[in-house]
Amino acid sequence: MKKLFVIVFVFLLSIPAFSQIKWGLTAGVSTNSLSMPSIKTITSPASSGPNTFTVDALTSAKYGFQGGVFVRVTLFGFYIQPELLFSTRTNEYTVTDVRTTVATVAKQNFNKLDIPVMLGFKLGPLRLNAGPTGSLLINSPKDLISDPDFKNNYSRMTIGYQAGLGFDLLNFLTFDIKYEGSLKKYQNQIQNLTGTKFNLDDRPNALIFSVGIMF
Hints:
Blueprint (H helix, E strand, L loop, with lengths): L1 H17 E15 L6 E5 L6 E7 L4 E14 L2 E20 L4 E22 L2 E12 L12 E5 L2 E13 L3 E10 L5 E5 L4 E3 L5 E10 L1
Antiparallel strand pairs: 1-4, 1-13, 2-3, 3-5, 4-5, 5-6, 6-7, 7-9, 8-11, 9-10, 10-13, 11-12
């Protein structure tokens, strides 16, 4: 047991000698899309009669921005890379008032702090990586439905994942393309006067293209 303890202790002390720690700055763009296969019908009672709306997500890609810092710890060709990123995302829905048949496009802008933790390995200048990511909402998007009989709730924290590949140039520049998916189904929730909650089948997915510099 003592020998095992000594071996583990020596191994832990030797990690800094064999590992490489770098930090860097990164910025990029993302193409965001929503997957909401069914149209939601939302109804709330009112003194003048029930208010009914249909909500349908526009699934065409929208562009967002992200930027922040990262730390990469490499050991024996494998690495772990936690990141802290400010990112933006835009969702668009078609909201139709059933009584008037008037349809409007509701746009919601989300500002988030993303915290991916990427695990990967290097094949020469190429990198393969994947890992979980947490997203913390830091703003209050405008209501999806502009009607006093409804209110919106937004998930403050969502959990997802990222996976992709990267390329390092001159051990200084780093390029990445990653796919981001959500493990949490609902981002927006609408509640009417009676307290009935309608969860929107909102699965944000994104392709992320980024470039960074390492120090």
